[in-house]
Amino acid sequence: EAQVTQNPRYLITVTGKKLTVTCSQNMNHEYMSWYRQDPGLGLRQIYYSMNVEVTDKGDVPEGYKVSRKEKRNFPLILESPSPNQTSLYFCASSFVWGNEQFFGPGTRLTVL
Amino acid sequence: GQQLNQSPQSMFIQEGEDVSMNCTSSSIFNTWLWYKQDPGEGPVLLIALYKAGELTSNGRLTAQFGITRKDSFLNISASIPSDVGIYFCAGQLGHTGTASKLTFGTGTRLQVTL
After folding, report:
1. What is the pLDDT of residue B95?
2. Which pLDDT belongs to residue A46?
3. Cβ distance A65 to A81 under 8 Å?
4. Do B99 and A50 touch (CB under 8 A)?
5. Sites in chain B below the pLDDT cut of 50
């Protein structure tokens, strides 16, 4: 089944404790992206990757890191999480940049 | 970064009613997409529009690409309880298949009562 998977689905952590949210797609998509969703703000792009070893900042990259060592995986790293990073995070992928992105199920992160 | 304005922000309607929502931008887009997000899930693509003036249907859903290329509309006819969710528009400056960022609207939350 073609899909985008994220882990974990739910995470509660404390300020400053490094964490990684994994994202994997099995559709051989070149483009992958991370979004955060906050009430009233819709989906805002954090980072994106056009292909392996090619990543760039989105609209809200501060406090996040990403890597793209393999085509299928695009982990999101929070080196020192803060409460303002409490949010719902989505990973997405597509064959080409922006077009008809497929979304993962989401990761709800709470930073205390 | 730019965001699209969607209206209304939320709607409470009765089953069987028709629904209309729209999305506007200060910038021109060459591609418009409409997504639906069910509670606890990621957004799923409903309709893609690639040409100004285009009208496209997907079952009970109909979407239009505004002539000015600065807006798009989504209509749902004869709503049913499973239409509940958040509807997002997304605009893309580039044409399909070209490199271009996707900008999302703020969402319209739809609730359907029996």
Report:
1. 60
2. 94
3. no
4. yes
5. none
* Of B1, B42, B100, Cβ closest to residue A103: B42
Distance separating alpha carbons of residues A87 and A9, to the nearest angstrom: 12
* Residues of chain A under the 70 pLDDT cut: 97-99
- Tens digits of per-residue pLDDT, B42-63? 999 999 998 999 999 999 999 9
CB contact under 8 A, B3 and A42: yes
- What does each C-alpha distance from B38 to A57, A87, A102, B19, B71 come to in angstroms? 28, 17, 14, 17, 24
Say whether B41 and A4 touch across the interface (CB within 8 A).
no
Record: contact B92-A98, CB cut-off 8 A: yes
Q: Are strands B10-14 and B108-113 parallel, antiparallel or unpaired?
A: parallel
Q: How far is CA A39 from CA A7, A44, B108, in A?
A: 22, 11, 11
For residue A45, the chain B residue with the least C-alpha distance is B103
Chain A residue numbers with beta carbons less than 8 Å from the beta carbon of B44 are 103
